[in-house]
Amino acid sequence: MEGVIFKSKKIDKIFLILYFGFFMLMMIFTLYTYYVEQDLKVFLLGFIGGLPLILSFAASQWLKIIVRNEELIIHWFFTLYKTKIKNITKIRKGETLWSGLHKYGTTSKGLIIFSKFKNDLYITPENEELFFQQILAINSDISIEKV
Prior knowledge:
Layout: E1 4-7, H1 13-37, H2 40-62, E2 64-68, E3 71-76, E4 78-84, E5 88-95, E6 102-103, E7 110-115, E8 121-123, H3 128-138, E9 143-146
Parallel strand pairs: 5-9, 6-8
Antiparallel strand pairs: 1-2, 2-3, 3-4, 5-7, 7-8
Helix pairs in contact: 1-2
């Protein structure tokens, strides 16, 4: 069976501006401090501090949610998360980014996927209705809640 690939929702423009602004502020501070102190450690520390911002932006661009062979897979250059769809018990729609144990959503108002093993997953597929259709075709026992 060929898998269905869902892209993650894109970051809201306001958050994108905040990410970019914070990253630029951090880089300006790092470069200024490096220029004044002439210490490479300061520059490396600032660059490493900005790395999570770069990675979170990259995740919003290249994160994939894959339904293949009765498994739900979260992929970003490599597999981050995998679970059998038969183990999913409930999907809650409209949750915030701060919900769930494994957080691979890129915006707010996503989906929390509950499974039998208590390893909740937060995702934000672009086409939620098609995602529901694919998941429910494999496991019709999943209950859908709207918040």
